[in-house]
Amino acid sequence: MLKQCIFGLLLAATSFISYAEEAPSSDSQNTAYIVDNLYTFMHSGPSKNYRILGSVDAGTQIVLLSGEDNGYFKIRDDKDREGWVESKFVTENAGIQQQFQALNNDMTVMQEQLRQAEIELPQLQEQNKSLTEQNLVLSKQIEALKSTIESERNAKQTASAKEKRQLLTYGGAIAFIGLLLGIILTVVLSRRKRYDGWA
How far apart are CA 42 and CA 73, in angstroms? Predict the structure, then answer.
């Protein structure tokens, strides 16, 4: 797992470097940077004839306050100063310092996430073991309940069949007794009529 996290970290770093080199900053359309490896002077107007207000370090993030005028941009630097710098020293791509800082921040976040994951992993493994055991117990209980339900169903069916047999037996006995009584009454009545006729 550690190797996968390190690989993901390196992949994210590579992707970020490529993005920072190719794409302009997404924070603001007016954000730009002073090109790396040099510093440039900030003038009070759009040419070298205007007085110098100070210098802007290489890689400094700036805000463009106007479009290009006579080869110069009006900017606001990281010290909140406003002035004009030559457009050839302005780029939309973040400098190495900003890329390094962003990567360093990302790495710090990923290291913290990795540390947190390493802390949580034993807990998750223990939870997984506990849940597996609970699942096994519940599965056994379900099987026991299924068996009980099946036994009760069979017992109910047996009792129902027995009750039907008893009803049929009682019904047959009653019918037989009724038939027998009918025959006896018929015989008795026929004899009585016969004796009555002799009298």
Answer: 10
Number of separate helices (H) and strands (E) present in the chain:
2, 7
**Residue 118 exposure: Cα atoms within 13 Å on the Cβ side:** 12
Strand order, beta sheet including 40-43: 52-56, 40-43, 82-86, 72-76, 61-64, 31-34, 90-91
Give the Cα separation of 29 and 141 in Å (integer).
Answer: 64
Tens digits of per-residue pLDDT, 120-131? 888 889 899 999
Among 56, 52, 85, residue whose Cα is nearest residue 71: 85
| CA–CA separation, 40 and 83 (whole Å) | 12
Q: What's the average model confidence in pLDDT over 173-191?
A: 85
Rounded Cα gap, residues 35 and 161, in angstroms: 97
Q: Distance of CA 171 to CAs 164, 165, 198, Å?
A: 10, 10, 41
Residue 52: strand pairing partners: 43
In which region does residue 141 sit, left (phi positive, over 0), alpha (psi from -120 to 50) or beta (all else)? alpha
